[in-house]
Amino acid sequence: MTRWGLIGASTIAHEWVIDAIRAVGGEIVSVMSTSAERGASYARDHDIPKSVTTLVDLVGDPDVDAVYVSTTNELHRDQVIAAAQAGKHILCEKPLSTSLGDAHAMVDAARAAGVVMAANHHLRGAATHQAMRDAIAAGQIGKPLAARVCHAGLLPAHLQGWRLDRPEAGGGVILDITVHDTDTLRFVLGDDPVEAIAFGQHGGLAQSGLEDAVMGAMRFKSGLIAQFHDSFTTKYAVTSFEVHGSAGSLFGRNCMIQKPGGTVTLRNVEGEQELPIDHGNLYENTLIAFDAAIAGRGKPLCSGEDGIWSLAAGLAVTKAAASGASVKIESGL
């Protein structure tokens, strides 16, 4: 059983991760919030025994085996490095940080300490994307040539705040959503992006020069080109993930979501068929793999290095949207 400390009394932990930890047999022993009042209330509401206000108290707790970091993005670096140096395994929200240098420092610290580090790109835990990955690996669409991702919706009011008005915290749609697209593309395709172009949009939600929607394309090492549309402003959009190959196409629908669900259709010379999908909780799947990695059985679904790749792409898309130029994606790995 993994005993967890929560760094951040966050909405995502409240809505998704706390239940997932407990569902896979984990225990949450402590939560850290810099607000003593908020931390105590959060601990009481979620039946967490301890509430602390400092990072030292959380990572120094001998009852904590692993930490889940879900503070705002600019805080991740110091928190992850402190956890690694204290010998705690780490599941960190995406993006890992707001700069590649910081992300590399985090991964290096975890490697030096010999602890497991993972990025919480939950879409790797989706059965739809695993089915698409398996179909491509089995050659069912031939050579992948193109992909399209629609990851657009309406950002709920209770999730707005810093995502719309704090550039220094890594706000905006690109570091929130486009990084997920990148990671899912890498997972499904087994390929890495090398270049990005993009146009940002200000649709009325974001402030301080942050984009609340973006459209663009990435070129991958194999030559594949992937389009993406990410938005906080489109209430009635339907998410999708498509991959088109030399011998067939895959159409994922309602699949860029946090809940289990969605369909995948394969079209090729044999006609059209819906792939069988064994849906499961995305966050539970992430945690099952994380616990196995702690026990020495395999790797996390999304490693720290994977988190570096998605951040590198997000930063390149941000630069491309600002400059109007094509930008190379360089992870430094």
UniProtKB/TrEMBL annotation:
Look up the domain of life of the source.
Bacteria
Q: Which residues form the signal peptide?
A: none
EC class: oxidoreductase
Quote the InterPro entries the UniProt record gives. Gfo/Idh/MocA-like_OxRdtase_N, Gfo/Idh/MocA_oxidrdct_glycsds, GFO_IDH_MocA-like_dom, NAD(P)-bd_dom_sf
Q: Which residues form the GFO/IDH/MocA-like oxidoreductase domain?
A: 129-250
Q: Which UniProt keywords apply?
A: Oxidoreductase
Q: Where is the Gfo/Idh/MocA-like oxidoreductase N-terminal domain positioned along the sequence?
A: 3-121
UniProt cross-references to PANTHER family, sorted A to Z: BCDNA.GH03377
Output this protein's name: 1,5-anhydro-D-fructose reductase (1,5-anhydro-D-mannitol-forming)
* Organism name: Pararhizobium capsulatum DSM 1112
Ranked from the top, the taxonomy reads: Bacteria, Pseudomonadati, Pseudomonadota, Alphaproteobacteria, Hyphomicrobiales
